[in-house]
Amino acid sequence: MKTWTVHTKPGAAPQLVLEGFSLGAAVFGGVWLLTQRAWIPSVLLLCAQLTAGLLLPPPLRMPAGLLLGWIGGVFGRDMVRWSLQRRGFVLAHVVAASSEDLAFGRILTARPDLIEALPA
Question: Which residues neighbour 23 within 8 Å (Cβ) at sequence distance 6 or greater?
Fold first, then answer.
């Protein structure tokens, strides 16, 4: 069973964010955050990666890159939640389901008023 947090905003479709480690954020870092529309954390992580790659001596580049990847993986989804909060979304529910579609179905069953905000 996986767990999603559900974020709502009046007039917008609910956003689901999976809990736990993000392999995509660990491997792709700031680029993954860009795909999640987490602009500020994306720029900060990309700048940290670029700075580590350019300013650190060669023996420290690999450990720094691994550390930044680990930080992205552990905190990537939290950065997405923070970005949603900055855009006016509020944490409304926590849903457990085996897939995102089932989680979305469960939240719409529990909160039928959210159906009106879905795009046609």
Answer: 73
Q: CA nearest 24: which of 36, 15, 16?
A: 36
Contact 70, 26 (CB under 8 A): yes
Q: What percent of the chain has pLDDT over 90?
A: 78
- Confidence category of residue 11, pLDDT binned at 50, 70, 90: confident
* Every domain of the chain and the residues it spans: 2-117
pTM of the model: 0.88
3-state helix, strand, coil in the chain (%, to 5): 60, 20, 20
Amino acid found at 38: A
Instruction: Tell me the CB-side half-sphere exposure of residue 10, using CA atoms within 13 A.
Output: 0
